User: Fold these one by one.
Assistant:
Number 1:
Amino acid sequence: MEVFLAWQWFHRLGSPRWFYQKTGAWLPWLALASAVLLATGAVWGLGFAPEDAKQGNSYRIIYIHVPAAFLALAGYYIMAVGGAIGLIWKMKLSFAVMRAAAPIGAVLTFIALFTGALWGKPTWGTYWVWDARITSMLILLFLYIGVIALGRAFAREQVADKACALLALVGTVNIPIIYKSVDWWFTLHQPATIRLTKASSIDPSMFYPLLTMIAGFYCFYAWTLIAHTRVLLLQREWRTQWVREALVEEK
Amino acid sequence: MSMLDAPTGRRVAPGFGVLFKTELLLALRHRADIANPLLFFVTVLALLPLGVGPEPALLAKMASGMIWVMALLATLLSQESLFRGDFENGSLEQMALSPQPLYFAVLAKSMVHWMVTGLPLALLSPLLGLMLNLPAAGYLCLFFSLLLGSASLSLVGAVGAALTVALSRPGLLLALIVMPLYVPVLIFGTGAVQAAIDGYGYSAQLAVLAAYLAAAAALAPLAAAGAIRISTET
């Protein structure tokens, strides 16, 4: 009985209906938190943080670039974990989360690449450099696109879900290997600025707005992921009673 | 299931042997399927000097990278048909249902695939090196790096082939999902040849390729077996 109770939340979480009803209330709060954090971080970082001694104002793109790159990578793992849970426990909800995470992650990867290219122009004098981290991000984008394309190729959603989950897991095993091999091949890039183990090489006056932006991006990510998952759930479960009830309520 | 499986479980090795022989025989009877990737490999590489110009110094610089990229594409092109025939005539489903572990079936098929694509590509590479003016120091290393690397390509490609086997025209999709996974092999393969040309030791890069192959041999058939189970559900 106790074991059953301990796992009850887990199975309840797996129910699309429960998820849809619960998360409806979270969405406005997440939206508010991300708006406040992003606005604070952007104003603080773009307007008040000191100018960089070498790069001048152009370094400020870090406030978009770094959080996007963080979440692009984290998003792949979120997608893969969603796929793994779906494959192991056959949970409909976690497959929906996985499928929702793929396009969001792809867009974030693209934003990281795009802002990186814009940052590269004043810093290195060119938009595109084949260096380790840019190339890794480009390959990450291809991995995301692979998952999205594979998901669209199947007529049956159930098969598409499982195939995408498997591909995401294979990608997860490969990401560290790809990252390390690209790093080895690496030509030129500034060393990583945020290190969790050693003292950070970025000044606190620049670092706190960056942290605020990262927190804001996390909230924004959670918000879009939940919103996208809700739409997918409505599409997938449209025949069920709870979807009709939910839609009538919202009218 | 476990009770019934116990006696057959011990017979994995003969089962693997039979499948391996059958696959090899099938591959050898379809000579065109062996020749096509090789001809593709040679033809595209012959187009390269027409595109970039015949200047020997330029070709020498590009040779190792171009040979590797073309080997990658040739492997990928042949990968599509890896499970196709067996899927269409139903044998793949039978393999998935049989008490023989699917892991070894995939391993046997990947090994045969390597023997009829990767191995001939590696054997052919010195000739192409000659055509593209590859510096003399690179030949041996190019051969060994292709020999090791193409085996990994066959194994990793099997996962993509298994995922897309139920689709009617998987060609480009297969390339899209498998290409990013080929990156480490390409990097270390060309890295080894470049090191050899520059006069450095290249055993470290070959060791990394071998390590990748060991990991791929252990994990890729597992993933491909899972993908076959998903694909045969339809």
Number 2:
Amino acid sequence: MNSAKKSFLTAGAVVLSCAAVLAGTLSRNRADLHLSSPFNFFASTHSLVASTANTAPGAGPGDYYEFVSELLKRDYVDPVTDERKLSTGAVKGMVNFLEDADSRFMSPEEFKVFAEASSGKFEGVGVELGYENPSNKELRDALPPALLPFSQAKASDSSTNLDSDGNLDTGHLPAVVIEAVIPGSPADKAGLKAGDSLKSVDGMWVMNPYEINNLAVISLAVKKEQDAHKSQPPTQALTDLTREYLDIRRDLRKKLKNSLTPAKAMDRLTMGTSGDVTATWTRGQTLVTTRLAKSITPEEEVSKEPNGAIAVHFQPGVSSKLKSILNTGPVTLDLRENKFGDPAELKPCLELFGPAGAYGKLVNNKGKAATVLATTEGAKPRNLKLIVDRSTAGVAEMFALALQSRGYAKLEGPPMSHDRNLVETFKLSDGSGYTLVTAKYETGTELARSKS
Amino acid sequence: MKQTLRAAKFLGLLVVLFICGFSWRDVREGRLPSANTLASILNGALAENMPSPEQEFLQNFNRIQKDYYKTVPVDKLTYAAMEGLMASLGDPHTMFMPPQLANDFNVETNGSLIGIGCRLAPDPLGAKAVSVFDDGPAYHGGIRSGDVITGVNGASVVGADLDDIVKKIRGEEGTTVKLKIIRGQKSSPLLVAVRRARVETPTVSETKVLPGTHFGYFQVATVSEPTARQFDEELEKLEKQHINGLVIDMRDNPGGLLDTAKEMLSRFVPGDKSVVTVRYRDGHEDFVTTDNGVQHNFAYPVVILVNEDTASAAEIFSGVLQDYKLATLVGTHTYGKALVQNVIRVVGDSDQSASAKVTIAHYYLPRGPSHDIQRKVDDEGQFISGGLKPDVEADFDPDSMVDVTYGDLKTDTQLQKAVEVLKQKTGG
């Protein structure tokens, strides 16, 4: 072997050795961070805001995980047979910690229903339900007339549990409201509407912040009356108030004995394909009672309405369906009853109605530069009308705003839901899953400069 | 042939280097290389579809930390994850305690801490001393109940958060803290110096002979390290006043140490009698029995007040006396916690560490396993069964508008019932 060949071989060996080390490090990163791809439906959208990550130095989450799971496997009173239960529990703990109505953990059963609904198959009575944390004003507006005179007691009393936003602390208990009604579903036939707030299911009271607020309001009024007439014989007003207070408290206590948590109530209405369910709702100050049969309601991505408008639902595949039926003339799209939406369909749908370019931005609250929502292909603008209302949410609302902001569409109808969250979906290996708000949509494309 | 061998050796070297690169992160973070992760990457097919539970946790941790649209502090997210992990077992007593909670828990079970020895409550002007412990540093420094602390070491604490004020007041044992206090309506504040020392929190309190009776009363707040001795001391105070009945108030007592409960029970029960039988998951049993030669002569009937928040060691104390018919239980059913927990510092062992509380065994009262008191709840967490059943049921009127003060015969209707029971037993 001559010396040139030898040195060539040595050099090759060194390069290969380095490559081996590098390959090892990279595969480790991959193993730790990216082994499971996000839930298939939305895999492509993850790149909208996704980033790679490193664990913190020192005692990282992995150290905690190992310590605690080993401890439980060794010492817990019952043998821990399924370690995946522990890791799923950890993910659930994290998602719940966010206390975000649109970032929600779902059990395998719930996630299955969610995934089917995302692709246009709705189990249960055919509604899309969501949590709503009412503002102080909304709470006051919902007070029964008899309690209205006392609502001021709350606003002026600084000793009550007001959170930093000035809302009464109802223990983070949300109300369950209809966000969209699936056309042709049992709920649709029964006349339910977006915005209806759930009161009871199958005779069981659904815990909600409104009624708990009622109790808070009257209890404060009693206290105020007591303080105003300290060490005097009770006034007639106090006697009346006290009677009212006790009535409400007794009523609430009775209801609590036969009650459902918001999550359980949701499941009863949106899961299952057979049997009946009775539910009562409030619409403003009126009470609506419905008896509904559960079934599967399919929802088309795109369907023609009698008046010529095209109803659009942002399920996976909606853009290609839409493309196949569009000509170049004026068109009206009906964007109502849209809660679930596949973020991956946003860009391809925009590309059907406007030229390539920027259509707003996806921002986060981390003080970092936002991402511009830009299309790479495009079409000639046309006379485009979009029918919207409060059931137009999420991807549908972003779509409408994006086109409106560039002047490529006219919106028709009442204000939309104001839900402009980019929500991505992730599945865990045991079948459970969660949604995560990864950005908020804003019109305008100028990016705020990072402060750092 | 020789060349083939050399090539094989080189290939082997490459594999070793790959593994080195792969494990680099573990080495850098000072732990053993992760064999699981390595195994999963070598077994490619498995790895793509089924990450190990730990990998799955880490992936989702990183995703939420990086991709959620708001900033999520790494430590808080880690604690939330551990809380969820431990909660997944469905046992309310197996739980993760972040550092702050872990510390509070520690103080509660030890029954002692370095401080000035007084209980503080929020006040618009700073912190109000609601109770000053007898013979404690604050007492010796001249602080009395009702004083309001408005300054600490020359800095004003008016309007400050109680937790922050407490942090400022606490410090090393033997050092001095200067406090500015306001007493009553006096306009000029006082300056006092208090030497920080180890103080014992009073867990047995509100000792008194109930007005209009000869019945003694005290509250036991927790069952912690000093409780048995404090129990003896308070009992002695009462017996000097010639009581002929005793009410031990165990309401809202979350329990604490089994050893302390045993010590207290040994005052009532003769030696070598069963307190509890502890059964571990491998089936082996520990028998906890009373101590010899420390029995006290109770020449009068004893009533224990209990409620749904009477749990753990407090429940053992009450339940064992009920089993041996040495006390009458008055109130509502108790919590029903027939499980023993162990508390372990998680990742490191310092005051800043978090803790994990883990259920490690079941226990049974002398009444035996067939009368298990384990709490059962429905899907919504509502109580179904379990706990000790009181001998005499007494609950508060849910429609009453009266603010109840425990130990106040005028408002405390459960205490009224206890007195009634004692009167029947003493024929008075």
Number 3:
Amino acid sequence: MAEVVEYNELVIGGELVAPAGTEVIEVVSPHTEEVIGRVPHAARADVDRAVAAARRAFDAGPWPRMPLEERLAVCGRIKDGIAARAEEIARCISSENGSPYSWSILAQAYGPMMIWDAAIATARGLVFEEYRAGVLNPLLVRRTPVGVVAAVVPWNVPQFIAAAKLAPALISGCAVVLKPSPETPLDSYILAEICRDAGLPEGVLSVLPADREVSEYLVGHPGVDKVSFTGSAAAGKRVMEVASRNLTRITLELGGKSAAIVLPDADLDAAVPGLIGSAFMNNGQACVAQTRILVARSRYEETAERLVAAVGALVVGDPLDAATTVGPLVARRQRQRSLDYIRIGQEEGAKVLTGGGAPADRPTGWYVEPTLLGGVDNRMRVAREEIFGPVICLIGYEDEADALRIANDSDYGLSGSVWCGDVGHGIEVARQVRTGTYSVNTFGLDLNGPFGGFKNSGIGREFGPEGFGSFLEYQTVCLPAGYQAPAAGGEA
Amino acid sequence: MGDRWRVEVDRAVCIGSGLCAASAPDGFRLDAARQSHPARAEADASEALLAAAEGCPVEAITLLLAGGGEPVFPPEE
């Protein structure tokens, strides 16, 4: 049962090569607390090699120079490769990070497939070159790949976020050094195999599992043109600081403390499952989790009762069990973090309505009971800080203006939702909330719309044509007066 | 390692997990409110202190080289 997956090499420029150092990352199951995998820990010398391979591939290799349709064909095969191994990928990630398989198969495997498909379709609609009348000259305005990209991805949805960065980067013609988290390196080896089999040329992709120190070395590497980072706000500030030395371009997708507003005319039968799903998804380890539920005081007791019943129906258990809806947290430190915030919330005056600790029947594994804190004031730390676990705040409001004030009273601005009787009114609510994405009577994160954060939730956007923008640089070519542009339909 | 480190805990960030005191019992004390304090403002560099800083679930611990003040954790590059 306790089969250990072992890789002794790193993927550098698409090839499996011996690591420069001797350090090893042990992947520990959050369910059994046993070692389930070992991979080399990339050293600085490995970063140097990977960046050099990416530089060669970008500066002189075929990838950025081939027609778009040829790159899209390779990317289509990457998507097909993920499809062929979807269940294996979902199982692998659930084993690494505790993501329940029922959610994992959708978000960790089908999600990446949808991202590749959406990015391929989006790319076909982008205009990479256009002729334009200038003020002084006729112009050719081009969009050209940004260069060597460092993609730093976290452990919560590693393949989803890797796809969100790799798909637009590779389609644009960039070369990528992917840096998975030490908690979830195993699935990145599957991705590297898929990319190799899809025919990605030499040098275009390296995969370097590493912790923060080596990650910072990569982010600060002068051979890197662009860093696309997903992680905590604290780490994001550090990435920006380090990247600033070389004026390396950055995209930061950081944390959130998103508010779901339940208006008095909401249909609770529809809202409650949506609220629970969007609050506790991936065991609460999602940047877009709706972790503040805002309820009118007039319907507070009724809504609280309904939510408590729904939280009670969640099934806590082995992430690989198909019936499980809430698995363990990724690491001991993350379980401790959730338990501490539950304690801090109570010290601040919040009340545990359900949950509130580690489940007594699970002595092994980093489990936390799905927890609903009631009577939360938005000034409390549990309402302001990202907990990243199954701990949700229920906050009462007086009227809609008060609800909007509370929703916006946050250092974060990633996501939000409103549950109401009239979608048109919900759109009015959306217009007044300062977050990068918003949902009305649903919870969505759509792969055709720009996704990202206001405020401390990040800089830049992923997905949609807007997401491609961060992997492309504009080039304006001034042409001599009287130059006649060739007819459209030429080389893309 | 041989260096001396200055140890700082940002108490606006600390959530009192106690993990630092568990990984480096000589390096950190928890007060009555479970807030972490460096046992001494400066200490000999050690794997235990580094592990405590790396393992803090809210990244509240900073280690700096004593004297020069260059960051040890979070690392500078």
